[in-house]
Each structure stands twice: as C-alpha cells, then as structure tokens.
Task: inverse folding
C-alpha cells in the first residue's frame, strides 16, 4: 500500500514543478491537492487526466482505492 | 490497444452517451448508490434538479473497462453532458459549489447556495440497463 508521501512524490515527479499536498488516513483512500503551472489553460478534465496518467492502469481503484483530487493552475 | 472493428458494448456506450443529454455512469443506482463518490455526484445532480440517465457499471465489469477506454478516464463515476465528459465526483462537486454545474446543465442558477443533501432525491430516470444489450 502506498503512503501519502509516496503518492505525493509520484505526482510531483510525474508533473515536474508541481506541488502536491496528499493526505490519507488508511493508505487506501487519498486526498490530493495539486498545483502546477502545466494546468494553466486546461479544462478540469484535462488537468485531472494529467494526474491520473501518472498512475498505472488499474492502480486507481486498485491499491489506490480512491484519489479525491483538486487541481489548480499556478 | 488494437482497434476492434466489432465492439457492440462500446457502440452501446457511445450510443447511450450520444442519445442522453445528461448521463451518469455510476456504481449502483441513484436510489441506491454503492459508493460515496457516486452518491455525492447523484446528490449534486439532484440538487440542480436535473433529470439524468444513469448506468450502473457494477452490472457487468466489462462496462467499466470499455467506458474507461472510451472516455480516457480511469475512475467511476463519470458524468457526460451533451456527449462531453464533464468529469468525476471531484470535478462535479467543485462545479456544483461554484455554480458552474448548473450552468453546464442549463439548470436555474440557484445551485451552489444550498449545501449538498446527503442522498439523491428520487425522481431521476430509471437506470439504463446496458448490460441487457450484451450478448
């Protein structure tokens, strides 16, 4: 099971220059708030897709059962 | 992924998305959501007093698999309005709070003022049973 710190590190290395605040009470359900310059000009769907794309197929809904995500351009 | 010329399920999903102005793919039904994220999304739609079609992806695991490959979106729920993916539970919740959801849905702009109810109001259309179209 990934920890919040691992999920944070993966998001931040997957989207260079981004800043992710990740919390989890159980290492299965995660809350992430991600700020990245790359999000500028993108729709929310496109912003979320960039984050989702970091994870392997089946990982979201699998070992990361839920990733509640808020994205913001910066 | 290779192109699959014959894919009735994918066609059924694309058809459902194209022919329903507002359609939600969810776990469970609006009356009985099986996941908190699906429940929240239903509640946001109900709060905007929008009629929507619903598909229970738990009815057949192939629905979820095919939907995600069609929409390029890994998680459930997924809300489509006029053929476009609006987003999952987080985006729908965020758009509800900002009033944007009502704008996208063409609903009266009163949404976003009231806190979300815990459960969806009954009154949405019965679930589309796409699984019944599987051979």
Result:
């Amino acid at each position: 099971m990934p920890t919040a710190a691992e999920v944070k590190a993966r998001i931040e290395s997957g989207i260079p220059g981004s800043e992710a605040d990740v919390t989890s009470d159980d290492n299965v359900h995660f809350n992430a708030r991600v700020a990245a310059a790359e999000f500028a000009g993108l729709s929310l769907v496109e912003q979320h897709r960039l984050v989702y794309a970091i994870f392997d197929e089946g990982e979201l809904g699998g070992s990361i059962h839920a990733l509640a995500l808020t994205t913001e351009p910066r | 992924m290779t192109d699959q010329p014959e894919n009735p399920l994918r066609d059924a999903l694309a058809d459902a998305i194209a022919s329903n102005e507002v359609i939600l793919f969810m776990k469970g039904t609006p009356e009985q959501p099986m996941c908190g994220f699906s429940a929240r999304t239903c509640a946001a739609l109900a709060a905007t007093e929008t009629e929507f079609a619903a598909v229970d992806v738990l009815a057949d695991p192939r629905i979820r698999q095919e939907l995600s490959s069609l929409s390029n979106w890994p998680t459930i729920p997924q809300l489509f309005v006029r053929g476009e993916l609006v987003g999952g539970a987080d985006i729908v919740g965020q758009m509800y709070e900002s009033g944007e959801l009502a704008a996208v849905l063409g609903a009266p702009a009163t949404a976003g003022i009231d806190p979300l109810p815990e459960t969806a109001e009954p009154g949405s259309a019965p679930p589309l049973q796409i699984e019944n179209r599987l051979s």
Remarks:
- Chain A touches chain B through 14 residues (CB under 8 Å).
